[in-house]
Fold this protein.
Amino acid sequence: MKLNVFYLFWIAFFTTNLFAQTTDLPKSVEWKNFDEVSQLFAKDQRPVFIYLYDTNPFCKMMTDSTLGNQEVVNYLNIAFYNIKFDVASKEEVKFFDGNTYYKDDYKKYHDLINNIIGEEIELPALLIYSRDAQGQVFYNYRDRDHIFPILIYYNEEIYKSTTYEEFEKRYFEAYPIGMQQIITRLNLKWLPFNEMLELQKEKPKKVLIDIYYNYSIAATMMRTKTYNDPIISKYLNENYYLTTVDAKTTDEITIKGITYKNQNAAHGFHDFPIDILSGNIRFPAFVILDEEFNLLDRVQIYLTPEAIEPIFRYYGDDKYKTQKYDEYMKNFTSSFKTETKN
């Protein structure tokens, strides 16, 4: 009998669960000045959130509604360094580039704004800097639903693999506005870890291990949208054994004669993901193993179905045995492009 598997998740889980074990959270955004953020960033790199505003009513609405929303407040305070800057301010500002900027009386906006954005801007505006100190401006009012994909995009470093426009599209497919919960039918044949080990003895295949972390939105989107895409899931089901490992599981995991445990360290992560990811704990994360459980690849970035297909096929079709990946990609034909033409 065919078992229909469904995946249920809550739209708000990333803002409720993420802070569930944190007490006495501030009720408002913890704003800092440029000098404070420069010093903090030098010691501990976080993305930087700069809110640019003036006296127009949309700025007031953004301040009171969006930036007053407790979920937004919590996320900003935990994941970002936050600066609130009046574009008409006359204060002297030493920016991250080491230069000092002023406000000339005859100019509408502060020289800092003219220098980094230009004289024509739409307010309110969000200037976001990544951990790599790369900035991007987002103009106009954003409510709670529309500010979160921006914050997630930078906090989970999705910008390293995907444009914001593409991510936002995928995000709202996964998290439609107004829906409190989503039931997604899983097309994939996910196996318990030990069952995967037994099947490998009978009929060897490549192995995909999805190492998941409940508080990563990008990891959830990979699971429900990228892996679960009809084209991707069909290929994976035919060519791989698929299993998952909770990054903080308390179960023992034995593979290739080595038993891994959760040492109950302060960070909570299990020894297996620590080892297989070479100590670089970042999500999304998946690894591909060969038929003898040797590591072929580890990938720790968000990828769309179109971007992930050549990776799975490169290893699943054994092309890695005779070609470098860059060479393989020169002649790769995407199933998605073929499907579009038809």
Q: What stands out?
A: Residues 144-155 form the longest helix (12 residues). The two ends are 34 Å apart (CA to CA). Confidence is low (pLDDT under 50) at residues 1-17.
